[in-house]
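Researcher: Quick test of sequence recovery. C-alpha cells follow.
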C-alpha cells in the first residue's frame, strides 16, 4: 500500500516572523519546520504502513526557497521518500493553486491513500485537502480521528460535534486527519542519520506540467484585501471571596452556558 502524506513546512511558531505589508502574506524567508499538524498524518501513515506489512510512506510538500528541514524531520520519523515542489513562480499562490500543485505532485506516485491535516497551523484555510481530492478526482473524508485499511476500503472514524461517524470509503482516497489523534514518534538518532540519504525529489512547476502563469500571484483567484492585528485578549474577571464566590462563579459559568 502506497501512502502519500502532505507535509506543510511553516515558520517556527516560537519565532513566527511577520506579515509583509505589501503582499499581506506571511514572510517565510527564515528556516521552516515541519508543521506539528502534519506530524499526526505522518505518524498515522507509518502505523498504517506497518500494519499493512508492505506499505510505503511518501511525503509531498510545497515550500519556498528549496526548504527541506521539515521534510527531513518527517523522513527521520520513518517516511521512505519525499517530493518537494519549490519554484519562484509559486510565490503568492493561494489555497487553490497550492492544491493544484500538490495534486499534480501526488498523482505521480499513484497512491492508494493520501493523508493531510485538517488544517495547517500558520495561516490556514482548512480547504487544501478537499480541493486536492477534487483535482485528483478522488473521494475525500474529513476530520478523521482514526483510520484503518481493510482491502480496498478505508474505514474512518470521522469526528463530529456529538461523537464520531463510521465512514467506509473506497480507495484511493484523500483523508484529512485531526490534530492529537495519535502520538507522533520522536525521530531516533538512527532515523536522523538515515533521513539524510533517503530519496528526496525536487521539482519545479514545469516538471508537473503546470503553466507558471496559472499559479502564484499571476494565477491567483483570491486577493488579500486587508490584514489587521489580532485583538489582544480581554482581562479575566476576578472574584474576591466574600463567602459567596462559589455562587457567583457558578452564575458566571451558567451565563457562558458551560454548565
Ligand atoms: C492571495 C494569496 C496569496 C498568498 N501568497 C502566499 C505566499 O506568497 N507565500 C506563502 O507562503 N503563502 C501564501 N499564501 C498562503 C498559502 O496560499 C497557503 O498557505 C496555502 O494555500 C496552504 O493553505 P492552508 O495553509 O490554508 O492549508 P490548509 O487547507 O489549512 O491545510 C490543510 C493541510 O493541507 C496540507 N497542505 C497545505 N499546504 C501545504 C503545502 N504547502 N505543502 C504540503 N502540504 C500542504 C497540509 O497537510 C495541511 O495541514 C497566500 C494566500 C492567498 C489567499
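Model:
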Amino acid at each position: 500500500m502506497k501512502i502519500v502524506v502532505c507535509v506543510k513546512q511553516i515558520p517556527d511558531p516560537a519565532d513566527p516572523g511577520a506579515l509583509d505589508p505589501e503582499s499581506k502574506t506571511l514572510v517565510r524567508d527564515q528556516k521552516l519546520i515541519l508543521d506539528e499538524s502534519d506530524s499526526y498524518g505522518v505518524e498515522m501513515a507509518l502505523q498504517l504502513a506497518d500494519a499493512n506489512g508492505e506499505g510505503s510512506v511518501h511525503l509531498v510538500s510545497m515550500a519556498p526557497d528549496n526548504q527541506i528541514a521539515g521534510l527531513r524531520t518527517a523522513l527521520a520519523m520513518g517516511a521512505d521518500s519525499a517530493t518537494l515542489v519549490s519554484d519562484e513562480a509559486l510565490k503568492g499562490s493561494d489555497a487553490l493553486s497550492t492544491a493544484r500543485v500538490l495534486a499534480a505532485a501526488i498523482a505521480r506516485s499513484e497512491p492508494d491513500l493520501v493523508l493531510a491535516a485538517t488544517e495547517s497551523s500558520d495561516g490556514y484555510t482548512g480547504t487544501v485537502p478537499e480541493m486536492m481530492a477534487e483535482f485528483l478526482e478522488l473521494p475525500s473524508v474529513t476530520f478523521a480521528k482514526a483510520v484503518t485499511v481493510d482491502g480496498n476500503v478505508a474505514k474512518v472514524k470521522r469526528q463530529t460535534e456529538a461523537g464520531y461517524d463510521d465512514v467506509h470509503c473506497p480507495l484511493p482516497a484523500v483523508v484529512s486527519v485531526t490534530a492529537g489523534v495519535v502520538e507522533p514518534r520522536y525521530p531516533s538518532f538512527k532515523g536522523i542519520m538515515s533521513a539524510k540519504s533517503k530519496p528526496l525529489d525536487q521539482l519545479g512547476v514545469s516538471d508537473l506540467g503546470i503553466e507558471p502563469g496559472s499559479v502564484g500571484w499571476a494565477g491567483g483567484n483570491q486577493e488579500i484585501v486587508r490584514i489587521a492585528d489580532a485583538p489582544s485578549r480581554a482581562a479575566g474577571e476576578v472574584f474576591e471571596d466574600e463567602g459567596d464566590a462559589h455562587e457567583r462563579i457558578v452564575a458566571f459559568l451558567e451565563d457562558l452556558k458551560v454548565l
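The chain has a mean pLDDT of 93.
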